[in-house]
Amino acid sequence: MNIRHLRFFVELAKTEHMAKAAETLGISQPSLSYAISSIENELGVPLFEKEGRNIRLTNYGKIYLKYVKSSLDELDRGGEFISELLDVNRGHIRIGFTFTMGQDLIPELISQFRKEDSSAGITFDYSQDTTEELVKRLLNDDLDLVISSMPTTPGEIEKISAAHLVDQEMFAAVPNSHPLAQKSAVSLADLAKYPMIYYSKQSGLRQRLDDMFQSAGVTPQIAMEAVEDHTIIGFVHWGFGVAVIPHLPQLDPRVVTVLPIKDEVNTHPIYVLKKVDHFLTPAVTKFEQFISSYCHKHYISEDKMV
């Protein structure tokens, strides 16, 4: 049984006339008769019966017609959707990003991308999570692109293609009444003297913080760990400790005191991730190229961080 024969069956069921159906389909009557016989032989039941000079559907034929029409409609819709995905100006993009990226960079990139007339028909699905969880979804084909830290989970790195996008500036966050709040800038050694609210191992920032303190030759006094940025800010605000945080554009400056970090290792690289050797639709490729070009022009070449 093949799809072409099923379409013949639907047309014959519509006309209930061999000659008319064959003419509409542009085939000979013997070819149409062969196609219907092939379906009936496979099913083991008659789909049509003679009624004078015409034919009509049997009860089996009426039942089968409903399923065939439904199946062909689904196949047609699937084909239309694939065609849409392959249209560089009409596709759909599933993008994942970490929590801090959603405050400014992702809205900026998509807003600028949509200003291009040829991109107006492209739609997006958004997913926000930790780098670890986003990478799992990327490898499971639930996402097309991820904008996050570099993944560090063993067994995943070789399956991911990562391109540097921008650098995120890191700052110190201290309670407003803290002694360090009076300084214009602090070092990691200054921060290491106090209890620290630290990003947990589930966060893509954890490895970067560990590397920063290791480079500075000091060990942080970790008082508690958290995944989410504003949880860390909350505990700093209420005096539980100090923290190293990425630039948070939406952070209310009255909540905590944010200070520059003197150490040279005060940046966090952000990457665009995709699966290695994985087909990307034209719309996804177009967006990937746009954000790489945009970030190079407006951030990297101007030595600007997010």
UniProtKB/TrEMBL annotation:
GO terms for cellular component: protein-DNA complex. GO terms for molecular function: DNA binding; DNA-binding transcription factor activity. It comes from Lactobacillus porci. Pfam families: HTH_1, LysR_substrate. This is LysR family transcriptional regulator. InterPro entries: LysR_HTH_N (IPR000847), LysR_subst-bd (IPR005119), WH-like_DNA-bd_sf (IPR036388), WH_DNA-bd_sf (IPR036390). Belongs to the LysR transcriptional regulatory family. Residues 1-58 form the HTH lysR-type domain. Keywords: DNA-binding, Transcription, Transcription regulation.
